[in-house]
Amino acid sequence: MTDTQWETYEVFHQSKRGDAHIHVGSVHAPDPEMALHLARDQFARRLRCASIWVVATRLITATDYQDETFFAQTTDKSYRDPKTFGAPDKLDPHAS
Amino acid sequence: MKPNTPLQTLLLSLADDELILGHRDSEWTGHAPILEEDIAFSNIAQDEMGHALVWYSLVETDTGRTPDQEAFEREWDSFTCCRFVSYPKGDFAYTIMRQFLFDQAETVRLESFLESSHPGLKEAAGKIIREETYHLMHSQGLVHRLGDATPESRKRMQQATHMAFPQSLGIFEPLEGEAELVSGGVFAGNRSLQAEWLRRIIPVLHSVGLSVPADPGGVRDSCIPDYGGRIRDHNEHLKELVDNLQSVYRSVPGGTW
After folding, report:
1. Residue A73: what pLDDT?
2. In this complex, is the C-beta atom of A37 within 8 Å of any C-beta atom belonging to chain B?
3. Residue in A with minimal Cα distance to B133
4. B257 domain residue, yes or no
5. Distance in Å from the first CA to the final CA of chain A
6. A21, A53 contact by CB (below 8 A)
7. Looking at the 3D structure of chain B, how many domains does it have?
8. pLDDT grade, residue A91 (50/70/90)?
9. Does the structure show a pLDDT above 80 at A4?
10. Chain B CA closest to residue A36
11. Is A34's CB within 8 Å of B34's CB?
12. Least packed by Cβ within 10 Å: which of A31, B57, B152, B176?
């Protein structure tokens, strides 16, 4: 079925400055400015929010789920994994 | 019931405008042409009712009558909202035009209250105006987009302008005892607010090619203000709305959950 509504914009939400913007959903909107307003109504009313990004869905270049070979690891690359030495979960910058 | 003081008259007119328009906005819930606008209007409806609560609470400090009593126990012909907010929601163009004209009026009104000699009014205006800014961005944004989008949208927005303009002049219907409020520095008065409001709305409407009945050569009958609301002279639209608004409350008087 064709979508008779406005085009979609993907919405990215940041809960505080410095955090990553996280994809939270999408909105229909006639242009980016209205998309921001409508995203505010839908995603920023109850969540704590420092910033919102919107980007037209059509501008996103994405992989195809059918294309399984895109991520394939066909040869043994375990030598690249840093698993032969331990590291603390949280590095202490003041440790000598 | 004791007659209202001029301040109570002002506060009740503000509160009733917000409550009734909020109810009309809520009628789009589940029916708006676009899902996102459905959510936006439901959001705006709740905000307007929140503003009504602020004004009713200020009345309560004077009269002891609670916001629930004001909203749910008064008869429909005791409300002092302007007639403009009581009319059926119409098509989406009319709804957007009404919201735009009202949001501009509310903004002008709140800006005047920021200078008020009445501390409660001033403080409340400071809180409400932050939300109102976004209502105005929303409604004005859609006036810009629908005003010159397609022949159909232009036609409907023009019809909406002609219908809503004289009704919206009713927002500024003089209040009983208003002169006392103006001389006491409580607010600038409806005549002055209306002049400022016209200075703001007309350029926006002209910028998208919409003509206003007040323009030179416009339809003079469409400039006669739709007064009556502030003196409780309403029509069946408000009666029907208030019946609906109060139906649950009146079915179990004093009920709580």
Report:
1. 79
2. yes
3. A37
4. no
5. 63
6. yes
7. 1
8. low
9. no
10. B138
11. no
12. B152
Q: What is the pLDDT of residue A77?
A: 79
Min Cα separation A35/chain B (Å)? 9
Kindly state whether residue B104 falls inside one of the protein's structural domains.
Answer: yes
CB neighbour list of residue A62: distance below 8 Å, 6 or more residues apart: none
Do the strands A51-56 and A7-14 form a parallel or antiparallel pair, or are they unpaired?
Answer: antiparallel
User: Positive or negative, the Cα torsion across B154, B214, B79, B135?
Assistant: positive
Nearest chain B residue to A40 by CA: give it.
B40
Residue B161 pLDDT more than 80?
A: yes
Closest CA of chain B from A37, distance in Å: 7
Picking from B28, B34, B36, B47 by the largest number of A CB atoms within 10 A of its own CB, the best residue to mutate is: B36
Q: Chain B partners of A40 at a C-beta cutoff of 8 Å?
A: 134
What is this structure's pTM?
Answer: 0.88
How many angstroms separate the CA atoms of A44 and B85, rounded?
28
Which architecture characterizes domain A1-61 according to CATH?
Answer: Roll (3.10)
Residue in the block written with tokens 């994809």: A23
Chain B residues in contact with A5 (beta carbon < 8 A): 34-35
**Domain region containing B79:** 6-251
Give the count of Cβ contacts less than 8 A between chain A and B: 31
Cα–Cα distance for residue pair A46/B206, rounded to 1 Å: 37
Whether residue A78 has pLDDT greater than 90: no
CATH at B229? 1.20.1260.10
Give domain status of residue B256, yes or no.
no
| ipTM attached to this prediction | 0.73
Check if A34 contacts B (Cβ < 8 Å): yes
